[in-house]
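Handout for the seminar on molecular recognition.
Each group receives one record of this type.
Step one: identify the two inputs.
Step two: read the structure output and locate the region that could contact 0O2.
Step three: write two sentences on what you found, then compare them with the reference statements printed after the record.
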Amino acid sequence: MLKTLISNPEVEGFLESTYDFAKLMTFYKCAIMEVETKLNVLNEETSLKFDRQPINSIQSRLKSLSGIMKKLRKKGLPMTPESIEANIHDIAGIRVICSFKDDVYALAQALERQDDVEILQIKDYIKNPKENGYRSLHMIISVPVFFEKETRKMTVEVQLRTIAMDSWASLEHQLNYKKKFNFTQEMRDELKKCADLSAELDQKMNVLKTQVDTDRESNTFLDYLNQELFG
Ligand code: 0O2
């Protein structure tokens, strides 16, 4: 297998720049760390203000070498570190699973406001769901990563979605997304109905959240301390 790979001229050229590739991937890995820290800080702030966590969980991944090569080949692009950096924007990927729909937008706006974050692209599949019912907020952002003698602006794909959006997308991913099985129209309609139900659930939970947040915001920190200490 390895022998076949190395005898492929495309791969041969790629391996020549192995060090540059490893360095690039390290920059991406650090960019993920930077953005995760930003998200965790925002999570702490909301936790202090509203006594609840807007982020349910964060998953991150670096795209695999085979995934990168597949994408470059599909786009007919050269397999060099320069080409990867210029053309593929989801090498560093972060999925943020939020508690409520408002949290998705609040976190996105908070990231946008940060001086060192540049927004390169936003796709709002919550306001404009995909035809199959997929909902999520996708952002391509750029953040600086500081090495000892070099600073690079790295792109990171951030997908923000609620727990309900995530459970639908995870199940749909297993059943349908990029799968060869031929989904009938009836099955597609059924999947879409499930997506609509999950959107309704998000909407109802969001209304409840707004009522609770409004109440908590109107209580001062001293009220909160009094309650905690004296019941
Ligand atoms: P996987 O399997 O998650 O790695 P591009 O990234 O530019 O090539 P596109 O379509 O412009 O492609 O990007 P878009 O629309 O922002 O979607 C990218 C990612 O969103 C996908 O990554 C999925 O993770 C997710 N996604 C988009 N549409 C769907 C969908 O219909 N169902 C599910 N479950 N996930 C979706 P990948 O790399 O395509 O796939």
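Reference statements: The chain has one domain: 2-163. The mean pLDDT is 89.
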